[in-house]
Amino acid sequence: MFAAVLLSLVGVLGILQGITAIANDDVYTRVGDYVFEFDLTAWGWIHLVLGVVLVLISVGLFKGADWARAGGITLAGLSAVANFLWLPYQPWWALTLLAIDVFIIWALCSSWSHSTD
After folding, report:
1. More exposed terminus of the chain, fewer Cβ within 10 Å: N or C?
2. Is residue 73 part of a domain?
């Protein structure tokens, strides 16, 4: 349950972050000479799509679906990578979301139990 709540939180925050980057490129400061420097609209779409999928996976976790656990670990990992690449634009925000992604992965992995029939 803890991981599902955090996953939905990161998803909603990713959706808001994506909408902000798509709607107004002036909100985020542009960084010069950054290896992963994409157009902010492209970053906005990346965060928006990732946020929507994270929310959908969290719904599966709330319902107790087995596929949602593996999907949550995978997408939390992708979210962590996306937020790591987002560091030059919003460092504290990206670090916060990166830390939450790590907690999600930990929570999903630590509560994984295999039934021995």
Report:
1. C
2. yes
How far lies 109's CA from each of 63, 82, 112, in Å? Answer: 17, 20, 5
Task: Give the HSE-up count for residue 100: Cα atoms under 13 Å, Cβ half-sphere.
Answer: 24
What's the number of domains the chain is made of?
1
**Structural domain containing residue 7:** 2-110
What's the pTM value of the predicted model, to 2 decimals? 0.82
Kindly state whether residue 90 falls inside one of the protein's structural domains: yes
Q: Mind listing the pLDDT tens digit for each residue in 3-31?
A: 899 999 999 999 998 898 888 766 666 66
Does residue 117 form part of some domain? no
Q: Give tens-digit pLDDT for 93-117.
A: 889 999 999 999 999 998 666 544 4
Residue whose structure tokens are 């994409």: 38
